[in-house]
Amino acid sequence: MQRICWTICLFILLGASQMPATAQATSRHKWISLFNGRDLTGWHSYHQSAPAPAWKVQDGAIVLDHSGNARGGDLVTDREFSNFELELQWKISKGGNSGILFLVHEDPHIGATYFTGPEMQVLDNQYAEDNKIPSHLAGSLYDLIAADPKAVHPYGTWNTVRIKLLNGQLTFWMNGKKVVETQLWTPQWDSLVAHSKFKQWPVFATYHSGHIALQDHGDEVWFRIIRIREL
């Protein structure tokens, strides 16, 4: 009888030890919302404790609005992510410029999100000043790999994008079309960075986890339906 009791107890303990791992794996692969459509819970401005006044929520979207000289700065998630799949929609104003950054390291000694975080470019390809270089157009891995400009919708209309990062394998989609694919942290990647503007920043893309950031480039921009799943 005692042996049976010990067997039952051991079975229960072994089963219990497996449950958290299974639950964690299931949770890790579930989509979670990063924006509730009502307020900026889960976000703060870079190097600040809360979102800056220029970031607002209007009609179910996050809006950057500098009217009245409202103070801004890049908006970042409270949480950090490493392997993930991120989906969202963005809309840019005429002539506007912004970006979606990831692997952003927040450190008082690092002055801006782009010193560490690679960027999917958000841009009005037609009228923005920064539209002369292919790798600066919307959907591109900024200043590194150009996206197909035909995949982007014009200013004032919504674009649906997806960013997937898994063990350094990085892929961008724009409106259902794959527009960027590369492998981070390889000799080929190091060569890309060495021939870009980021060569002057030694910590660029060196962190394997970090915050998601929405860039304040001074222009009105909208983001909505922001969700992520950890891989």
From TrEMBL:
GO MF annotations, alphabetized: hydrolase activity
The keyword Aminoacyl-tRNA synthetase is assigned to this record: no
Domain of life: Bacteria
Keywords: Signal
Keyword Secreted: no
Residue stretches making up the 3-keto-alpha-glucoside-1,2-lyase/3-keto-2-hydroxy-glucal hydratase domain: 30-229
Name under which the protein is recorded: 3-keto-alpha-glucoside-1,2-lyase/3-keto-2-hydroxy-glucal hydratase domain-containing protein
Native source organism of the sequence: Thermoflavifilum thermophilum
Organism classification: Bacteria, Pseudomonadati, Bacteroidota, Chitinophagia, Chitinophagales
